[in-house]
Amino acid sequence: MVPGPMAQCDDIAPLLGTFEDGELPPHEMQAVARHLASCTNCEAVLAGYSSVGQMLRDAALAPALDGFAMGVQARIEQMRPPLRVRAGRWFETQRERFGNGVAMAFAMAAAAILTVVITTPFARNMIGAGNHVTQIAVRDARSLARATAKSSSAIASAAGGEPSTIISKLETSNPDVAVWSEPSQDTTVIWLPDQQP
Amino acid sequence: MPDPRASNPLQKPSRQDGDEAELIERAKTGDTRAFGILVERYQRRVFGVAMAVVHNQEDALELAQETFVRAYQNVGKFESRSSFSTWLYRIAANIAIDFRRSERRHPTMRGEEAETEIQRLPSKLGDSFKEAQRSEMAQRIRDALEQLTPEHRAAILLREVEGLSYDEISDVLQCPRGTVMSRLHYARNHLRQILKDLAED
């Protein structure tokens, strides 16, 4: 609550310490200062706070810290450096020993690993699947019409059955139908060729 | 309005941001010497944060060392979203709070503590009256602080002795800014009442 122009001591008292610390917002600083100008009681409280602060500072023990930093340093030097630091140092040592050739060797090794990963059966399958879909998309109109007819008949014959039955019938009777299934998301997508007039 | 940092013996270290960023980057690559410079720079304040929470010098020193070791282990994760000092103080506060919790579960008697307290007392022959008075005053202030809860004590010491802003205290002690304000208000009032005669002197 912001103290008004005629603020009472009860309103001002909780703010005195914060005023002393200069941590009140400007309008409250002004209100407290205005009140203090005419209130000897609050002025005495504020002076009391001030002396308490001075006494605490006077009584504060200035510790004997001679050798403290050296003690800390000795302790941290005995410790095993973190893995990140050790790895950095190892690379630095290798670089100093072999020069920039090491960096080149690492780059070539990374390229080799990438090549192996790309040419694995999984990667080939991924690339092949993409081509297959593309091929379906560019089939000529006649072939698509034929495919559509086959698909329609497959769907008609499977109608009334389970969804999995429909999919398997479509796949066996028509190689131009692409089925993509994502069981974890309970989603199945079937690509059928466009029907031609 | 006095700035607590003006007469603060544990002043905020002066730092050049560029220089500090470079030291942090070097520390991230395992440069212990660069980290050592950061330790030198922040050791007093990290000690102060630990001291504010545990209120015991020996424990605070041990915890400060632990703070820097942990900071070194994790400096790779520091992303400059907050300032390095606030990040360090947060680690210090967390370690100190954990330590205090475990202490509460397993309270132990400490011979060294009593010994330190005895050492703090002025010897009858050697010390002047003024020094004895000062020591007595310091002891009274320490006793007054002991009457506060650790949360209130940490808040008031972080503000008055370490000169942290409210936002920094809120970040270090992981509590809302409003809670910082209310803890400070309570702690100040409480200390003012207990130390009224000293303040008048």
Low-confidence stretches of chain B: 1-16, 109-126
Mean pLDDT of chain B: 80
Largest sheet of chain B: none
Q: How many domain units of chain B?
A: 2
Oligomer: heterodimer
- Residue share in β-strands of chain B: under 5%
Unreliably modeled segments of chain A: none
Global geometry of chain A: elongated
Structural class determined from secondary elements of chain A: mainly alpha
Distance between the termini of chain A: 80 Å
Q: Measure the end-to-end span of chain B.
A: 21 Å
Q: What is the CATH level 1 assignment of the largest domain in chain B?
A: Mainly Alpha
- What letter string, H or E per element, gives the SSE order of chain B? HHHHHHHHHH
Which pair of chains has the greatest number of interface residues, and how are they split between the two chains?
Answer: A-B, 42 and 53 residues
Count of separate DSSP helical elements of chain A: 9
Q: Which architecture of the largest domain in chain B would the CATH scheme give at its second level?
A: Orthogonal Bundle
Outline of chain B, from the CA principal axes?
elongated
Structural class of chain B: mainly alpha
Going across the biggest sheet of chain A, name each strand in turn: 1-2
Structure report:
The complex is a heterodimer of chains A (197) and B (201). With 197 residues, chain A is mainly alpha-helical. Chain A folds into three domains: 9-57, no CATH class; 107-138; 141-197, no CATH class. Chain A contains nine helices and two strands; from the N terminus they run H-H-H-H-H-H-H-H-H-E-E. Chain A is elongated and about 105 Å long. The two termini of chain A are 80 Å apart. With 201 residues, chain B is mainly α. Chain B folds into two domains: 15-109, RNA polymerase sigma factor, region 2, helix turn helix motif (Rna Polymerase Sigma Factor, Chain: A), CATH 1.10.1740.10; 121-201, Winged helix-like DNA-binding domain superfamily/Winged helix DNA-binding domain (Arc Repressor Mutant, subunit A, Orthogonal Bundle), CATH 1.10.10. The longest helix of chain B has 23 residues, at 32-54. Chains A and B meet through helix 1, helix 3, helix 4 and helix 5 of A and helix 2, helix 3, helix 6, helix 7 and helix 9 of B.
